[in-house]
Structures are given as structure tokens and as C-alpha cells.
Write a structure and sequence with these properties.
Layout lengths: L8 E4 L5 H11 L3 E6 L13 E2 L2 E2 H4 L6 E4 L5 H11 L4 E4 L3 H7 L3 H7 L4 E6 L14 H8 L19 H24 L3 E6 H8 L1 H10 L16 E5 L4 E5 L7 H8 L14 H6 L1 H12 L4 H10 L4 E3 L3 H5 L2 H5 L3 E5 L5 E5 L23 H9 L3 H9 L4
Parallel strand pairs: 1-2, 1-6, 2-5, 6-7, 7-8
Antiparallel strand pairs: 3-4, 9-10, 10-11, 12-13
Length: 397
Amino acid sequence: MTGPLQGIRVLDLTQVLSGPFATMLLSDMGAEVIKVEKPGLGDTARGNGPFVNDMSTYFCSLNRGKKSITIDLSKKRGTDLLFKLSQKVDILVENFTPITLEKLGIGYNEIVKHNPDIIYAAGSGFGLNGKDKNLPAFDIIIQAMGGVMSITGEEDGSPVRPGVSYGDISAALFLCIAILAALQERHNTSKGQLIDISMLDCQATVLENAFTRYLNTGEIPRPLGTRHPLITPFQLFQTKSGYISVALRGGIKNQWPLFCSAIDHVELIDDLRFTDGWKRTLNYKTLEPILSKAFKTKTTVQWLRQLKQLGIPCGSFNTIPQASLDRNLQDRNMFIELKDSKNNTFKVVNNPFKFSRTTCDAERMAPELGEHTELVLNQLLLMSDSQIAELREAQVI
């Protein structure tokens, strides 16, 4: 790997989605990520279908580029082995509940005894000191508790879960950001530290304006379909052939007259109810039927051509198959092929990192369970083949 994190080593104790996504990003950026899994079982995500060439596509999407080793952390010899490995890494990442860590005896207070300079990143549902800290958390629970589902869906409709694992992915990004910040801080001070990232905290953070509006005005945010709560038009419109997304920038005054001209409603230009994005939002129920009727008079392609010529931000509405063929995504090398240890080819989504000097393209497929156990123990801990075989015989690895 030649990425900007080349030379950084990560011990990855995470499983399922949030933690593995964060460590996969570190791997893509050049870090050596050693994934610790339970012997015989591995990350529970390995059991999620569909499967291609006996590999879980779900696991594949979260663990490319990593090395997999197996250690039974329920055994003292297993935790002792982990402590030895912790001395050889820069970062340890885990997403257990705090009570699980206490039972295993591998929390920050124990790890730091073996490596005082380590960056220990803990990702959990509710944080290390929250009221619910020892409760299990999954994406749907966090989305429901954090409020995002209360503002997602059609107006006056039932709550809707966004189509991505919003609770997990947002926490993964914050976890990755925090790790990179801690690395920079350690560069300045030569000291490691504990990072505590809560999935629920992250939901509050990414809901930014919804919470800020409520806390300062008392206005309760609600679901609005595809439209924006503050700016109009900023939504999907049905056309003669499908849908189009339109986002009129409220701060640019000349866009509204151009837009009104494009939809053949010049009488709206000087209407005082619609002179800026906020006024148009306040009078949305009056304006929306006019806009919806206008967009149904032409095809999506016709509208895209016309609006783009006027400099009005707009885009097509794509299904996943259509998006996978998007020219801009293709130009940016966002869909790539990787090979596993058996030379099977898998197609994956690339990361979005583009650096001028250090490449960050994913290079290796997700590992087989325990694929690198012998390699890592031999190279990092200088263990002999016989020592490794004895650990395997004792079912420690």
C-alpha cells in the first residue's frame, strides 16, 4: 500500500458494520489493519448473504484489504496474545459494549498498561458513560432513538427508515475522523489516548439543523418527503418520463426568474410570496401544485437539458443499476474489481479518497477467516511454527 497512512498499524476488534467500515477506510488509506476474529466463527457479518464464491457480499463490502487472524479472547492465553499484539500497533479499534470489555478484560485501562502510546478507539451504541452504555445497539434502534426516522418519509405518513444504515455509517465516519485527529495529536505530543464514539451521539450531530431549529424555536421537525425544510424548490418532481431533482440556491437571486421562465410561469417572478427560498417554503402549499403540474409537461431528459443550460442545479433520479452506470462515477473509478486468495473476482465500491501523490484505491479483497494468523504471529511476535501449532492445538487461535 502507498496511501497516506502507510506505516500505521491497526488492531481491529470490530464486527458487523460501523467499526469494520471505519477500519476499512483506514486500510484503504494505507494502514495495515489486522482483524481479530473468533476461531471457527469469525465476524458475524460473514454469515450475511447473499454469497458469491462462498464469500458474503456483506462482509466483502466492509473488510477489504485487511488481514484476518483468529484469537479466542474468552481464554486468558487469548487475551495475553492480544496484549502482546497491542504492543506492536499504533491503534486499537473495538465496538463492544463496555460490559463485554469488562468481562473480557481488554478495555483501555488494561491495554494501555502494555502500550502507553496506543490510540484506543471505542465505538459503541451509547458511549462509555451513558445511561444505556451496556445495552446492545443496532442501526434501526439508533435511527429510531436519534430522531432521523421521525423526519424521514412522506408528509403525514408512517416513520420510514432511510435506505442505508445511517446510524452505523455516520458513526463509522466520525470514528475514522477521530482516529486521524488522535494520530495528528500524538504526532505533536507523542502520547496516545482513548477515543469514545457513541452511535447515538453521532445521530444528534448529523441531524444538525433539525435539532438546532427545535431547540431555538420550538418548531418540531417532521417528514416532508423529498423536499427541504427551509429551501424551495429543493426536491424531486415527477416528470413526463420519471423524476428529476431540483435544488434552487436561495442566495442567488437571478435563479428564481430563470426558473420561472423555464417552467412557463413568469407571473411568479415578482410575486412577493415567492421572492426567496424561505418565503417559498412558507407558501409551499400554494406553490407546489403549480410546480408539480409544470414538470409533468416534459420528460426528465428535456428538463435536465433546459435547466442545466440555465445554470439551475438539477439531476436525474437513478436506481442503483442506473447509478452504477453513471458516467461521473465511472470517470472517478468508483467501481472496481478485486481478487480473493482463490483468484475469484469481486466487484466493489471504491472509496472516495483522491490524493495528488498517494493513491488510496482498494487493492485486496476481504480475507478468509484466519487467513493471516500464522503470518502475523510469525512476523510481529516472532513466534515459531511449533509455537503457533501449539496455540492452535489449545484452541487459542
